[in-house]
Design a protein that fits this description.
Layout (H helix, E strand, L loop, with lengths): L1 E9 L1 E2 L2 E2 L2 E4 L6 E4 L2 E3 L6 H13 L3 E3 L5 E9 L2 E14 L13
Parallel strand pairs: 1-9
Antiparallel strand pairs: 1-6, 2-3, 4-5, 7-9, 8-9
Length: 106
């Protein structure tokens, strides 16, 4: 089983939750997920959350770095079981859609 450390944001604005729809490429199962992703070597967890949100949704957000909550769980994606540690942050929407979403894995 693989392990993954990732980060994610919770953005609520005007009673709406920022999320995106993803389809597992192996099972075809659909999910609604909070935006986020893996933490790259040269970035902090809050920076990763902001980058990944833009890549997955096209929206820029500003993370509150002191609002984090960590959660460990198992998740099956693309036929592979993953042990995940996700660092969740509250974030604020700071811009509208920036154009085409760049993350095409979903």
């Amino acid at each position: 089983m693989k392990s993954a450390v990732r980060t994610s944001v919770v953005v609520v604005q005007n009673g709406r939750l920022l999320a995106f729809r993803a389809e597992d490429p192996t099972s075809g199962k659909e999910y609604f997920l909070l935006p986020g992703g893996g933490i790259e070597e040269d970035e902090t967890a809050p920076e990763a959350a902001e980058r990944a949100t833009l890549e997955k949704t096209g929206f820029r957000v500003k993370v509150n770095p002191t609002s984090n909550t960590d959660r460990e769980y198992s998740f099956n994606w693309s036929g592979e079981d993953l042990d995940c540690l996700t660092i969740f942050y509250r974030a604020t929407l700071i811009s509208a859609l920036q154009g085409q979403v760049t993350d095409t894995d979903y």
